[in-house]
């Protein structure tokens, strides 16, 4: 009896071992660090194809493919290894698990039914400047897309909790307005140099500020806005100064507040942009 039990136990153990060592075939399930996938050719993998030995007995071009969705706002796109490429789209960092070699592959035509794209920037995001505008224009770190657009988009996002409900709504509308105005440059519909892009972009600022409701904000929100866009940056270039002055034309209360706070002191040195505005504001005193 003991001998027969031993033989049966040995048989069960050997059978279990043989099953464990069976090779995985294409289409079989496999398990990788980021989840369960299937063994398939890398050319057919729409998710993360792991070059590691998770399908050990299959050909080299058969790997464990895990369909991992990206995090919001790219939840309709899939994560991929950068060495797989992103045909027809572009990679976005920090929206996938794993190391930097795994990134979100966003389709430039849409990135999914509800995902943002270069033709449809998402609210309260800044990726448009780096992933679309800079990718297309290649203006460098000091150019408008990265040096101004991306920089201050992130600053305003960080300052958002300090604003009133109206102030938060203003940031959302303004950020989206500024990005939508630049879609033609990001998609290639509008050509030109980085200098032309910069001039065009600054020219859209006043309209976005005013149409989004800067005039109706409480002074506490104006304080946050001015502290976010520093005085040096606000008036450090002719483009930024002109944009602010032009905003004052349609927003005299805000402009008057800037003067009373002592923020605008160099306005009389820019006669070409400020002469008419200064006259209108002076009438208030």
Automatic annotation (TrEMBL):
Q: Which residues form the signal peptide?
A: 1-17
One GO CC annotation, please?
extracellular region
Q: Does the keyword Nucleotide-binding apply?
A: no
* Highest rank taxon of the organism: Eukaryota
Q: Which UniProt keywords apply?
A: Disulfide bond, Hormone, Signal
Q: Which Pfam families would you find in this protein's record?
A: Stanniocalcin
The reply on keyword Signal is: yes
Q: What terms describe the molecular function in GO for this protein?
A: hormone activity
Q: Which GO terms describe its biological process?
A: intracellular calcium ion homeostasis
Hey, which family's this protein in? Answer: Belongs to the stanniocalcin family.
Q: How does it assemble?
A: Homodimer; disulfide-linked.
Stated name of the protein: Uncharacterized protein
């Amino acid at each position: 009896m003991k001998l027969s039990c031993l033989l049966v136990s040995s048989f069960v153990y050997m059978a279990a071992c043989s099953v464990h060592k069976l090779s995985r075939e294409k289409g079989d399930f496999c398990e990788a660090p980021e989840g369960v996938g299937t063994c398939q050719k890398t050319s057919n993998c729409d998710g993360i194809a792991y070059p590691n030995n998770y399908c050990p007995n299959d050909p080299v071009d058969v790997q464990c493919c895990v369909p991992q969705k990206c995090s919001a706002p790219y939840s309709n796109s899939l994560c991929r290894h950068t060495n797989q490429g992103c045909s027809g789209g572009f990679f976005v960092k920090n929206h996938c698990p794993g190391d930097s070699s795994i990134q979100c592959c966003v389709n430039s035509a849409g990135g999914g039914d509800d995902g943002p794209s270069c033709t449809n920037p998402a609210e309260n995001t800044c990726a448009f400047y780096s992933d679309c505008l800079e990718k297309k224009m290649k203006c460098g770190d000091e150019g408008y897309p990265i040096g101004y657009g991306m920089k201050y988009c992130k600053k305003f996002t960080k300052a958002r909790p300090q604003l009133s409900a109206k102030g938060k709504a203003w940031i959302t509308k303004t950020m989206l307005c500024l990005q939508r105005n630049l879609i033609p440059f990001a998609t290639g519909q509008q050509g030109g140099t980085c200098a032309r892009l910069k001039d065009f972009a600054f020219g859209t600022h006043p309209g976005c500020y005013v149409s989004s409701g800067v005039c109706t904000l409480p002074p506490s929100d104006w304080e946050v806005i001015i502290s976010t866009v520093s005085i040096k940056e606000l008036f450090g270039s002719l483009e930024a100064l002109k944009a602010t002055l032009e905003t004052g034309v349609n927003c005299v209360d805000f402009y008057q507040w800037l003067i009373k706070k002592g923020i605008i002191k160099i306005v009389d040195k820019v006669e070409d942009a400020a002469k008419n505005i200064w006259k209108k504001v002076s009438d208030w005193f």
